[in-house]
Amino acid sequence: MKDPIRFDTSLPRLVASLKAAYPGDLATTEPIVIRDFEGRLGVILDINGADLEGLNSAVAERLGPYARSEDPVRGRDAAGVARIVAEAQTAVILNIDGVNLRLLDRRIVGADWMARPVLEPGAVPRVAFVSIKGGVGRSTALSIAATHLAQAGLRVLTVDLDLEAPGLGATLLKREELPTYGVVDWLVENGFSGTDGAFRADCIGRSSLLDGISVVPAFGSQTLAHPADALAKIARASLEDMRDGTSLSLREQLQEMLSSFEATGDYDIVLIDGRAGLHETTAAPVLGLGAKVLLFGINEPQTFQGYAFLLAHIRERIQGGTNWEENAWFVQAKAESWDAEIAQERFNALWTKEEETLEKPEKLGPDDLELVWADDDEPAPLPKDPVPLLRILHDERYRSFNPVENRVQLDERLVQSTFSDLLEWFDNQLELGK
Questions:
Q1: Domain count along the chain
Q2: Distance of CA 256 to the CA centre of its chain
Q3: Which of 102, 179, 201, 347 is the most exposed place for a label (fewest CB within 10 A)?
C-alpha cells in the first residue's frame, strides 16, 4: 500500500508530478502554486492547450485529495489568471526539489502571517513583547520597562493585545482608573459606530503608579459591567473589517488604532503586550506594526520548538522575512545564575540558519568521494557572533506581580538586580542618559 499523501508532503508531490509530466522546462517557467483554504493545491504555468489535459490528469492522480477539484493546472492565459499572476510577483520564491515556485497560501485565519513584515519604524518607537508560552513574565517585564522609562521622563503608552488573557489593565491601573473601553472595543466598534477622538480618550487609563504611564487595556470598565458580552466581543475582534468594499485585516486595524493614539503627540514610546503562542493575533505585533520585537522564552524545549516554527515560517514563507531579524531580540526569562552558557548556546543554535553553516556541493563528482562527513550527533555549528540574548533573572519576589498593591516591587535596587539587561537594552535603544 502506498503511503498516503499528507499536508507536509503535498508540495513536494506536486513538484514531482510536474517533473514527470510537464512537457516544458520547469527551470525557466517558475510555476505559481495556489494552496486554498482547505489545503488543496493548484498551479499556474506556461502550457499550451494540447498538453493541458494530460498534465491535469497526471497532477490529479499524483496529488489525490490534495489536488484542486477542478482543473488543478491552468495556463497563464486562462480566464481570471492575470490577477493571480500579478499578485504572485510579491510572493516568496520557494525551491522544492530543484524547482523554483511562487506560493500563494490562502487562509481563512492567519492571513496576517503571510504579509510582508513592516520594517520601517514610525515617528513614535514601538516595542512588542511576545512569547511562545504564557507564564514567562512577559507582562511583568513590560510593566517594569514602562516604569523605568517613565522615571526617565518619557511618556509611555502601554497597549494590551493579549485579548484572551489580558493583564496590563489589572497590573498598572487601579479599578477606578480603568477606562471605559479597551482594545477589544476598538476592534469591534471601528467597523460599526466609529472610533472618534472621544472614543479614543475613553480607551486610555492613566496609571497612578507614575506620571507618564498610560494604558490601553484589552477590556475596559464597560466590559466588566457586562461580563456576559466579553466572549462575544472577543469572537468578533480579530475578524477582518469591510470598508468601502475592501477588507481590512487585523494588522491594518491595529496599525490604525496605534497611529490614532500616537497622532495626539502625547507619547514618546509605545510598549505592546502580544498574545502568547502562534495564534493569528500574534502576527500583528511580531510582523505588522513596525516594532522592535522582544521574543521571551524560558530555557526549555517548548521555547525552542515554538520559535523554530516561527523563525522557519518567517525566513522561508515571507518575502523580506530575513530582514525582519534585525528588529528581533531573544529574552531569556526566569534565567538561573548557573545556566548562562548553555542557554546562550541553545538560543544561538535556534537562530543559526542551515544554509549559512553547512556547505553542500551542488552535485557529487570524483573529488567529492573523499569528503569526511560530520557525525550526526555533533551539535550544529554556532554563529561566529553570539545572538543577542537579554537575561531576566528568576526572582521569587516577582512570582505574584501587583505593583498597585505592592510598590516594593518597583524598588530601583530590586528592579536592577533582576531586570538590568532589559533596562540597559532600552537605555541603549533610546539613547537615554546621553
A1: 2
A2: 18
A3: 201
CA 106 to chain centroid: 17
Contact 422, 429 (CB under 8 A): no
| Count of beta carbons in the 10 Å neighbourhood of residue 30 | 14
Examine the domain organization and report whether 29 and 93 are in the same domain.
yes
| C-alpha torsion sign, points 58, 64, 69, 72 | negative
Give the Cα separation of 156 and 267 in Å (integer). 6
Span 259-288, pLDDT tens digits: 999 999 999 999 999 988 888 789 999 999
Same domain, 385 and 425: yes
- By residue count, the chain amounts to 434
Report how far apart, in Å, the C-alpha atoms of 157 and of each of 33, 281, 326, 432 are. 43, 20, 24, 17
Same domain, 304 and 426: yes
Same domain (yes/no): 155, 247: yes
Coil/strand/helix, residue 402: coil
Residues pairing with 101 in the sheet: 94
- The identity of residue 140, as a single letter, is T
CATH number (domain holding residue 79): 3.30.300
Q: How high is the pLDDT of residue 374?
A: 42
Please check whether residue 360 lies inside any domain of the structure.
Answer: no
Cβ(271)–Cβ(154) below 8 Å: no
Dump pLDDT digits (tens) for 77-92.
888 888 899 988 888 8
Closest CA to 208 of 284, 150, 145: 150
State the DSSP string of 56-115.
HHHHHHHHGGGB-SS-SEEETTSTTHHHHHHHHTTSPEEEETTEEEEEEE--SS-GGGGS
**141 and 93 share one domain:** no
Q: Which domain holds residue 67?
A: 7-106
